[in-house]
Amino acid sequence: MTSRIYYTKPSITEKEIEYATDAARNGWGERCYEYIHRFEELFKQHLGVKYAIATSSCTGALHMGLAALGVGPGDEVILADTNWIASAAPITYLGAKPVFVDILPDTWCLDPQRVREAITPKTKAIIAVHLYGNLCEMDELMTIGEQHGIPVIEDAAEAIGSVYHGKRAGSIGKFGAFSFHGTKTVTTGEGGMFVTNDADLYEHVLTLSNHGRARGQTKQFWPDMVGFKYKISNIQAAIGCAQLERIDDLISRKREIFRSYCEGVSSISGISMNPELNGTQNGFWMPTLVFSQETGITRENLQAAFRSESIDARVFFWPLSSLPPFEPVLKNRVSYDIPGRAVNLPSYHDLSESDLRRVVNVIRSLSASVSSNQ
Ligand SMILES: *Cc1c(COP(=O)(O)O)cnc(C)c1O
């Protein structure tokens, strides 16, 4: 009986266990923020930003950041239709409307031309989500933002290790948000990070993150505004510190896994994978295969083939506008087309060479059987 291959699994070593144990044993009282502050420092250094606030999730980081930018009822926020709902949900929490636009066929990220067309007087922000590690066209999006006076936000939850013209994903826009959910490249179980280079925005979000209590407020239990409670715990941050000490290895293993899949399928025609455009580095959070229409291979073929070999393969994100809470936007052709012939491959750090070969063999035999039927 062959063992099951999961699509994600955290990379946990003795270091994570040691730090978490130390936090559980000693990280209380005066020391209850030690790992949290260290986690924020390490993350700032890694990313090259001035300010960071660790949170309980990326969703929470986005919610606070959007609130601090003044997004509210009646406002619109533009983002790609191809996305996980966590990028859109905080917009709705604030009473604003997510405006879903189409993606580029090669990066599967926001199409800047579609962003331009979607801007109205109500547009309050643009959220650039770096999908599966692939980078958005940040230069163009930042230009559009400047021309219209609209902040561009980066949801970099999937883009640890991705670099755009020398800058790490998440460090370019008005603010960046990260996730350390158990499926992400760096994990704390659950967790997130808000980052920015804007001192005022940082102070505002810091106050919001502490139930509205400003740093300089000397009165105890005296919130100056209604804030949020999206804090990370010291124990989670301890695991995060260990992960950040290993971040170069965590990123390079993701890149190795991608390369291995790339080589494995290179002889099969009609497959495209996550691109790495000139001047960029892709963190390859989720190696993804998109089959061309000509191959005739569908999501259902792929799911069945992987399932029969006890391998987890994930469906490509459905267009958010096709989900029950939203209105369909059928003109988003690319977003509606790609999921029907795409799949995410397993990509956790501890995958062995033979695991990788098993995954590649499924793709090879599926491609061979489909082309022999044609
Ligand atoms: C995982 C993910 C999130 C949500 O992160 P949480 O920490 O679970 O809130 C948000 N955006 C994107 C793009 C993600 O992949």
Query: Based on DSSP secondary structure assignment, what is the total number of beta strands?
Result: 14
Helical residue percent band: 25-40%
What overall form do the CA principal axes indicate? globular
CATH architecture of the largest domain: 3-Layer(aba) Sandwich
Integer count of domains: 2
- Alpha carbon gap, first and last residue: 33 Å
Which CATH C-level class of the largest domain is it?
A: Alpha Beta
Question: Which class of secondary structure composition applies to the elements?
Answer: alpha/beta
Give start-end ranges of low-pLDDT stretches. Answer: none
Biggest sheet: strand arrangement: 1-9-8-5-4-2-3
